[in-house]
Structure formats: C-alpha cells, structure tokens
TrEMBL record, chains A, B:
Record protein name field: Trafficking protein particle complex subunit 6A
Quaternary state and interactors: Part of the multisubunit transport protein particle (TRAPP) complex. Heterodimer with TRAPPC3. The heterodimer TRAPPC3-TRAPPC6A interacts with TRAPPC2L. Interacts with TRAPPC2L.
Subcellular location: Endoplasmic reticulum; Golgi apparatus, cis-Golgi network
Top-level taxonomy: Eukaryota, Metazoa, Chordata, Craniata, Vertebrata
GO cellular component: cis-Golgi network; endoplasmic reticulum; trans-Golgi network; TRAPP complex
InterPro entries: NO_sig/Golgi_transp_ligand-bd (IPR024096), TRAPP_component (IPR007194), TRAPPC6/Trs33 (IPR037992)
UniProt record similarity statement: Belongs to the TRAPP small subunits family. BET3 subfamily.
CDD domains assigned to the protein according to its UniProt record, in alphabetical order: TRAPPC6A_Trs33 (cd14944)
An individual GO BP term: endoplasmic reticulum to Golgi vesicle-mediated transport
Pfam family, one: TRAPP
Biological function: May play a role in vesicular transport during the biogenesis of melanosomes.
Keyword terms of this UniProt record: Endoplasmic reticulum, ER-Golgi transport, Golgi apparatus, Phosphoprotein, Transport
Amino acid sequence: MADTVLFEFLHTEMVAELWAHDPDPGPGGQKMSLSVLEGMGFRVGQALGERLPRETLAFREELDVLKFLCKDLWVAVFQKQMDSLRTNHQGTYVLQDNSFPLLLPMASGLQYLEEAPKFLAFTCGLLRGALCTLGIESVVTASVAALPVCKFQVVIPKS
Amino acid sequence: MADTVLFEFLHTEMVAELWAHDPDPGPGGQKMSLSVLEGMGFRVGQALGERLPRETLAFREELDVLKFLCKDLWVAVFQKQMDSLRTNHQGTYVLQDNSFPLLLPMASGLQYLEEAPKFLAFTCGLLRGALCTLGIESVVTASVAALPVCKFQVVIPKS
C-alpha cells in the first residue's frame, strides 16, 4: 500500500528542508542545495548498486548497463520503466521518462518549469552512483521541456 | 529487490546530511537537527495516513488505531511488524521493536548508544503524523536500552 509512495514523500521533504534552511536563497545557495541533493542521490545509487544481483555485475557492454538502469533500477525506485533510451553510440545516452514520478505532483505545462531542477538533482546522482558501482564513471544531467516529461543525459567519457 | 532498502538508504543520507551541515554541533545544534527530522517524519506520516484505506478511518477505539500502526504502517515502512504493544489503558502505549531496522546498521550492544537518538527522531514524527491524520493528537518519544531494541512511547493526552 503506502510503501510505494514512501520514497516520493521523503524526497519531497528533503527538497523542502534543504530549500527552507538554505543559508543563501540566491543562485549560489540553490547551487549548493542541488549539489547536496546530487551527492545524496549518488550515495544512495551506489548503495543500491551494491545490492544488485551478482549476474548484473558481469555486464560487458555499456548499453546493457544503461538498459538495466532503465528497467530494473527504475522499477525498483519508481515502480515503472523508463519510456525510452537513445544513444549516439559514442558514449552519450538520453533516457526519457514521459511522466517522471517526482515531477507529477506539479501541474503539467510550463508554469512551474523553473522549480523542476530541484526535483531532478537527487535522481541525477542516483543514476551516477549506480553507474559508478557498476564500474562506469559518468556525468549525468537532466532537462525538462514540458512537465512531467523529463530527459536524463548520461555522458560517459572515453578513457 | 532494492526497493525495500531504498527508504533506509535515504534515511541514512538525511541523518548524515543534517549532522554534516549542522551550524552548531553542540547540544543545541543537535536538538535542532532532531526537531527537523521529527518534523519531516511528521509530514511523511501525515501523507501516509492520508493514503490509508478508507475503512481504517472508521477506527473508533484508540487501541485499534495503535494496533493498525504496529501492523500495517510498520509493514509498509519497514517490511516487518512491531514486536509488542503494551498499554496502561490510560492513554500511554509502549510499542517495542526488537530489531528496529534503522538501528540495525549499528553494532549491537552499548558502544553506539549515544548515536541512537538521531536514528529515531524521524520515526517518532512518522508515528505522530500518522496518528494526527487519524484524528489523534499525541506525544511520541523513543528510547533504546540496548541496540537494536527500541521502544516508542505514545502518550495521548485526555481532552
């Protein structure tokens, strides 16, 4: 019953708390809170990554890892799969969720668009942390063109 | 798979974050962080309470409500039931969890006992918030005699 929404409630509270007590509500302060949220997401993603079934650690192809995140990780956290995954086959992946659960409480459309980044930072960290545990360093950003559609861009630098 | 531990990971990060950035690490600062955590728990408890099946809102006896928290709410949040519930039949209830999940990561015994309060504040708030949604004002405190056993005391003032 309620357990499926527990994470979403807790996430909402974390965001509210960080913004309420932010010592500097200006652009710099917001940047700090976003970074704190991203860091929390990263460590939770790492911890979740360590809990993954052993066989997933044998992934050899980057694309397999990304597919795994879109399916299994997303279901574990959000009870749904990512809606699409695209790649340029050069280390850049775009993961699209057409109704991202953490954005759903906001009205659809454009009017709350500027509020969106604080509801995405934790999840960017979550993806980066899970990838890190699976042995892949990455840069993860998110963008929203119209609520509640969300695109996560994962860039994996070639070593 | 990983979804059952998501709440615990997130809770750990919240506690760590609040203590890391606490402007005053002394007794006063700790008190503020505890109060922040309790408040977050309260609002999550309220929100969970609103999600409860309609029939539970028809509870008439206080004891029924407390039993509901020990069983359904605890399973929803911690995937286990509370181990015992006692009452003096005068508005005081003691809910005991013999292996409270948020204390399990700490070693058993006495050595980390002073760290325990920060892992209990959120859950005290959670109980208070769920009770509030069910129409019962209460004061909830927690105590630990030996990890990971935890007692939550719910006092319901007679109006």
